[in-house]
C-alpha cells in the first residue's frame, strides 16, 4: 500500500511546509508593522501578505482532497506532478500578491 501513496504523501508534506512558510510570513509581517492579533488591518503591505496567506489556506483542503482522490482512483504519478505544479503556482501567487501593484 505504501508504494501506492508515497508520491501523494510527499506532495502533501510539501504543501504543509508551504502553508507553514506562508503563516511565518504573516507572523514576520505582524512584527515588522507592529500589528498584534486579532487585528487584520494595517498598512497595505501587511494586508497583502495577510490576504495572500488567507487565500492560500482557504483552498488548501480542496487541494488535498483532489490530490488524494486523483492519486488513489486514477494515477498517483500524474496527480503528484499536478500537485507540484499547483504548489509552485500557489507560491508564485503568494509572492506576486505580496509585492505592491507597481512591482507586479
Automatic annotation (TrEMBL):
Documented EC number(s): 4.4.1.20
Subcellular location(s) per record? Endoplasmic reticulum membrane; Nucleus outer membrane
Predominant location category:
endoplasmic reticulum
- Could you tell me which SUPFAM superfamilies the record lists for this protein? MAPEG domain-like
Q: Which pathway does UniProt place it in?
A: Lipid metabolism; leukotriene C4 biosynthesis
Organism superkingdom: Eukaryota
Any GO BP: leukotriene biosynthetic process
In Swiss-Prot or TrEMBL terms, this protein is called Leukotriene C4 synthase
Q: Which organism is it from?
A: Melopsittacus undulatus
Amino acid at each position: 500500500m505504501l508504494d501506492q501513496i508515497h508520491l501523494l504523501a510527499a506532495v502533501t508534506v510539501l504543501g504543509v511546509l508551504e502553508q507553514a512558510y506562508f503563516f511565518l510570513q504573516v507572523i514576520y509581517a505582524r512584527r515588522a508593522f507592529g500589528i498584534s492579533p486579532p487585528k487584520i488591518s494595517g498598512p497595505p503591505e501587511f494586508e497583502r501578505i495577510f490576504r495572500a496567506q488567507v487565500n492560500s489556506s482557504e483552498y488548501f483542503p480542496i487541494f488535498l482532497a483532489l490530490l488524494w482522490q486523483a492519486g488513489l482512483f486514477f494515477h498517483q504519478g500524474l496527480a503528484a506532478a499536478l500537485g507540484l505544479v499547483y504548489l509552485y503556482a500557489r507560491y508564485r501567487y503568494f509572492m506576486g500578491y505580496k509585492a505592491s501593484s507597481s512591482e507586479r
